[in-house]
Amino acid sequence: MWEFYCYDWGKFEAYRDTSRVSVMLQAVLQSEDEGEWSSALSYLESCASDLGVPCSITPAMVGALASIMIRVDGKKRSGILLLLEELTCGRGASEYSEAQRVWLRESVQELVLVFKNLVDVMERSSVEDAELCVDMLAYCAEHVPEMACRVRKYLTLCQERFPQLSDEIQAVSGYFDRDSSSC
User: Fold this and answer.
1) Does residue 65 sit in the same domain as residue 126?
2) Residues 132 and 95 in one domain
3) SS3 state at 53
4) What's the CA gap between 69 and 28, in Å, rounded?
5) pTM of the model
6) Are residues 157 and 85 in the same domain?
């Protein structure tokens, strides 16, 4: 995948040695062995995040994983969605340095680039995958307020499909839905 080779992975600040990032991304994309691709996802997470706190490699990692996410399905896609959500959730963001806030914003921008793919997964997947997409769409609206009305409409459709996600959708909507009367 071109996305893997767009970056000099060794030049990024990361929480772990980045020399194997390309190989691990390739394993996630190509391996059919759940143990192998799952282990690769764990390695990639430990490079790009420390309990959700981003570093300079995080936006590129989100971009690469989002590219893989649109090419796979099943448990592998679920694992990727889980990691994408973790890398973009901004847990404890009020304590982030300015650089960490920038990396979070850039990471969410990578989600914005695959927004329609996230909507597609939310529309056609399991409730568990849809819930992860609900969160990521909310992050998009939170960081790009112009998307709030659009996200609100997709979340309403998701809630109709998965009523059991109503509480989650209401909770995340509070992060971006300040004035829904303009939608």
Assistant:
1) no
2) no
3) strand
4) 10
5) 0.94
6) no
Closest CA to 49 of 25, 80, 102, 13: 13
pLDDT tens string 39-75? 999 999 999 999 889 999 999 999 999 999 999 999 9
Note whether 62 and 87 are within 8 A (CB).
yes
Structure tokens at 119: 């909507």
Return d(Cα 135, Cα 20) in angstroms, integer: 29
Considering the domain architecture, whether residues 23 and 55 belong to the same structural domain is answered as yes
List pLDDT tens digits, range 135-168.
999 999 999 999 999 999 999 999 999 999 999 9
Q: Angle of helix 127-143 relative to helix 148-161, nearest 10 degrees? A: 170
Backbone angles phi, psi at 54, to 5 degrees: -80, 165
Alpha-carbon 156 to chain mean position:
20
162 token code pair: 């998965």
Note down the domain range covering 25. 1-100
